[in-house]
Amino acid sequence: EEQLVESGGDLVQPGGSLRLSCTASGFTFSSYGMNWVRQAPGKGLEWVSTVTGPGTSTYYADSVKGRFTASRDNSKNTLYLQMDSLRAEDTAVYYCAKHFYDSSVYRYAFDIWGQGTMVTVSS
Amino acid sequence: QSALTQPASVSGSPGQSITISCTGASSDVGNYNLVSWYQQHPGKAPKLMIYEGSKRPSGVSNRFSGSKSGNTASLTISGLQAEDEADYYCFSYARSRTSYVFGVGTKVTVL
After folding, report:
1. How far is A121 from chain B (nearest CA, A)?
2. d(Cα A13, Cα A46) in Å, to the nearest integer?
3. Rounded to an integer, what distance in angstroms lies between the CA atom of residue B70 and that of residue B21?
4. How near does any CA of chain A get to the CA of B14, in Å?
5. For A73-112, what is each residue's pLDDT tens digit?
6. CB atoms near residue B28 (< 10 Å)
7. How far apart are CA B24 and CA B28, in angstroms?
8. Which of A50, A52, B52, B59 is the most core-located residue (most Cβ within 10 A)?
């Protein structure tokens, strides 16, 4: 069974840092692009970042660009999100999600999601 | 990247059909047939329901269907059931800066 498990969420002060992890199982992790998506309390989904399968390319939403860094360790089947200069508006549940492929072609959708990890930025 | 526009809420009675719209721009919804739809129940992770505008992943009920016209994509739920009560989000590839954008979300209520 394909599965993603996030960890690392915590309460952090504004301006602080935090690193989230997402551990994958049940599929060949290195073959798939991976993503971070967040959801502020009571709000909608927001795409945050994408990392390609080899980890050589990363993409970010404007709201986090320059503050967040996504990376992966394919030997550990783990995706990371390093979050620096955190702001109150970064408070959210952070999900990791896997690229969806059909007939070996990426379909610009995400099919497997973790359960999410909560990040709270507050003094 | 501005969020795609969806109605805040849509409701229907069991057995009825409802349609949720998702309006974007020529730089996202209008220029690509790459809209996907996600269902999210309270406290749960999103679930992929439709991809590439109208295709269903394995295991998704055929009561869910998608379409697109111009800059607007739509999700139709036929034979509405109590379990369909959830939030629904559209999602699209956006050409600018190689990114993605979600819709604001629509709450579906089964009366």
Report:
1. 20
2. 22
3. 12
4. 26
5. 999 999 999 999 999 999 999 999 999 998 888 999 999 9
6. 24
7. 6
8. A50
